[in-house]
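Minutes, project check-in

Agenda point 3 was the complex the collaborators sent over. CS summarized: two entities, 464 residues total, and the question is how they sit relative to each other. Sequences were read into the notes so everyone works from the same version.
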Amino acid sequence: MLDNILRALGDPALLAVVSLTFRVTGSALLIAIALGVPLGALVGLTRFPGRRLVTLVLYTGMGLPPVVVGLFVYILLSRSGPLGSLGWLFTPAAMVAAQTIIAFPLVAALTMSAVDGVDPDLRLQVRALGATRWQTGWTVLREARIGVTAAIVAAFGGIISEVGAVMLVGGNIEGHTRVLTTAIVLSTRQGDFALAMALGLVLLLLALGANAALLQLQGRSR
Amino acid sequence: MSRKQAAFFEVIDLRHRYGARTVLNIPRLDIARGETLGIIGPSGAGKSTLLRLLQGLERPTEGAVRVDGAPFPSPVPISMSRRITTVFQRPLTLNRNVRDNVEFGLRLRGRRDARAVENLVDRLGLSDLINAPARHLSGGEIQRVALARAMALDPEVLLLDEPAANLDPANVARAEALIRDVQTRGRTIVLVTHNTHEARRLAHKTLLLMEGTVVEVNATATLFESPSDPRTRAFLAGELVY
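CS then shared the predicted structure for the full assembly.
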């Protein structure tokens, strides 16, 4: 078994799968950060009518079943769907879209609660030292950086391990839309447990490495 | 009246409420440019609230605070708010080291002044801690960081809310020496304190605030030595008058 796992790890096809996993999850995470951190910070920093509703929607979004997101994106992108003309279905772009939708509420909601957790008196004192609104917001976001990093880690963990949505909208096409999780499902079904184990091992290592890098970043900024 | 003697702050017909409770009711108060006004009074008298209104962090429910002859516009433009800085009663630091905390206000203005920062840190006895993370500091150390970061800006007006409350006698002397320097530079200071000795040592004029109203405002020596209001006498004698 171990021999077979090691042989599977040397398979060049594995590299393509790992590389696509990284590109899809990485792109989705970057888009979710670019949209979710500013939105979460804004909701956390400001008081406006409807704020509770936005919070409720974000918190609910954190618990979206990935397979339902997959279904939703599938319908949107299917040939007769409203975004069918993009031709994204069964391409990595569709997988990025689905994973972004899963990651975004996680990043936004956890950023919001991290920013909300910063002592409101600190904001007042920062303003009294002459900070503009933007400078105050940025300073509070920096103070909340441990929570914001946790938001990113949670979102990353949520989408790199996700299988339902990418399976539906990507189609698990070899050499095109096959990622680690969908490859594990397939090889398990085919009885190739050595390959499935090898893929699982790589997935775990990837998650470990990415989280270690994020934590390093968090530690350095303290 | 020359500009030099003109009031920096004019409080006019001020009423400030939190819900149904009126926390401040000051028909008129002038704070002259270059003057140090001590504000004493029991807890809950509205002293800290008055400082927040003078800094423009809150807007009065009724009436106006005029700064340099003009009321605070809404929102307060940054060029105006940067002329005034507050050292808060419960100062909070950023999760950075001491140097970055002291330099913070300067950086907000796109400035750096390592020498001024190091000088202040040294005079407040924080040199050994300059690279220490602020979250490891004691209450008294945080208070000194807060003084240093405000003084690094050399603002026209310094609002001090119990600046020496957490300091031991040696550090009280350090802080007061710095406050005297600020006075020498002709800056305006509003000093809120529980400590009547501190007001006597530093303030040109002293104001007794009780339940949101001005009981008496007078030259410091007059207020302490021959107060005109019986409530002032009672307060200074340590009697419960509220």
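Noted in discussion: Chain A touches chain B at residues 119, 121-122, 124-132, 135, 139, 142-143, 222 (CB under 8 Å).
Follow-up: revisit at the next meeting once the mutant set is ready.
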